[in-house]
Amino acid sequence: MTTASPVAAGPGAAAVEAYLACLDAADHPAAVELALDLLDAGASVADVLVDVVAVAQREIGLRWSAGRWSVAQEHAATHVSELVVAAVGARTTGRPARGHVVLACVEGEWHALAARIVAEVVRAAGWRVTFLGASVPARHLVSYLHQTGPDAVLLSCVQPSRLVRAGRTIEACRSAGVPVVAGGPGFGPDGRWAAAVGAAAWGASARDAARLLETDLFAGHTGPPPAAGGDEYAAVLRRRRDVVQFALRAVAPPEAEADQFAAAVGHLVDALAAAIRVGDPQLLLDHTTWQAGVLAARGAGREPLLDAVLAACGTVLADHPRACEHLRAAAQGRAPC
């Protein structure tokens, strides 16, 4: 073991710092030992996974977005945390005394660690949990619901740009007679966009998910969800490829960066469609602000990558009034009045 650190008697700042040291060194034996020592000292599964592992992972995300960590370092740290979650989960014993819940990540969402944390905390609270993992297509999820008949679905979405897909998944679950508890920052600050896409409730943490499963919030959240306001978001998504190709021609990034650039443009179009879907231009503004910060941290600056992409979107989507309004607001760096 290469990074042995003293373990606090319970979760707190010292435990988080010790755990971050393990992640910094990608030392999974030390990280697992630290987590299990916390359990032995009386901490709960939620204490360890929510107050230590999840907090540390948020710090890792900040280090990456600020350009202080590489993708490789972030991936190595995340792998360590995945091993820790598995080790902590293995400590949960006994037969589930409550109902059955299915947990999945929205299609296209590959960040599954937070969802795994929720799965283990909910399982420790006495529920039978089936974790389906990252990027689950809605049709496959619904087929599984019909086969197994769970009491609820816990749906994770980390990126707001995936909200349209989240809405389609929630609609399919409701139509199958299964209510959905949403989780993750993809549903907006304080979950403000969860109701707009038909979720029965939103939880900020794994503890919230376990608590919400014990409530009666599911009444009225099965069957067809309320109709979305307009379908311009769908028209925007149909032009996604056109926008990407136009932006590639307009910016002409180096060949080695073309794929990454195209993916970034696609995510921006997804965020625009999601903003229209939930009726909140702040969603797109937050996305472009985040993109600008990442570019600045890597020395790329805002020009021309972001402003040129916004201009390309406006050109291709000129016939879509709400899309143009949202794009103008994002280009100006403020939400419209």
TrEMBL record:
Q: Where is the signal peptide?
A: none
Q: Does the keyword Metal-binding apply?
A: yes
B12-binding domain boundaries: 98-227
The protein's matches in InterPro entries, at most eight in alphabetical order, are given as:
Cbl-bd_cap (IPR003759), Cobalamin-bd (IPR006158), Cobalamin-bd_sf (IPR036724), Met_Synthase/Corrinoid (IPR050554), Meth_synthase_dom (IPR036594)
Select a single GO molecular function from the record's annotations and give it: metal ion binding
Query: May I have one GO cellular component term?
Result: cytosol
Q: Kindly list the organism's lineage.
A: Bacteria, Bacillati, Actinomycetota, Actinomycetes, Micromonosporales
GO BP annotations, alphabetical order: homocysteine metabolic process; tetrahydrofolate metabolic process
What top-level branch of life does the organism fall under? Answer: Bacteria
Q: Which Gene3D superfamilies does the record cross-reference, listed alphabetically?
A: Cobalamin-binding domain, Methionine synthase domain
Please name the source species.
Answer: Micromonospora haikouensis
Q: What is this protein called?
A: Cobalamin-binding protein
